[in-house]
């Protein structure tokens, strides 16, 4: 599980 990839995904799709 790539935690950094997940974090980047969240930041990329964060609308708030």
TrEMBL record:
Q: What is this protein called?
A: Glyceraldehyde-3-phosphate dehydrogenase
Q: Which gene encodes it?
A: GAPDH
């Amino acid at each position: 599980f790539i935690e950094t990839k997940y974090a980047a995904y969240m930041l990329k799709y964060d609308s708030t």
